[in-house]
Amino acid sequence: MTLDHKNPVLRVVPGPSDINANGHIFGGWILSQMDIAAGIIASRRAGGSVATIAIDKMEFIQPIHLRDLISVYAEVERVGRTSMAIRIEVIATRDRGATHLKVTEGLFTFVALDEQHRPRPVDPA
């Protein structure tokens, strides 16, 4: 599935502290950016608090470089009784905007939470 790349949930540029031993951006950094973006979409859809409960699929496709502009796109793929699956794609823009590459993608699952931080139903509409 290819997401609509018109409205990223997040746009960020990694910094020097985000580099791993190979000179690329640390995978944990991009994972956290993906979780933040997916959490925003899940919270909007659930109309309240949510928590990440699973990363069903995560694939690193291309390395992320220090000066890349990272755009994180996310959308609700499916809704269950208390959970939602959020599809995420990350596009790196480099070479002063001349190159756009899908660098990673994933499917994150969130559960809607009530005031006591227990699962609650998500409106199916």
TrEMBL record:
Claim: Transferase is one of the keywords in the record: no
Keywords in alphabetical order: Hydrolase
InterPro entries named in the record: Cytosol_ACT, HOTDOG_ACOT, HotDog_dom_sf, Thioestr_dom
PROSITE patterns cross-referenced by the UniProt entry: HOTDOG_ACOT
Domain HotDog ACOT-type: 4-116
SUPFAM superfamilies per record: Thioesterase/thiol ester dehydrase-isomerase
Pfam name, any one: 4HBT
Similarity comment: family membership: Belongs to the acyl coenzyme A hydrolase family.
UniProt name for this protein: Acyl-CoA thioesterase
Source species: Sphingomonas caseinilyticus
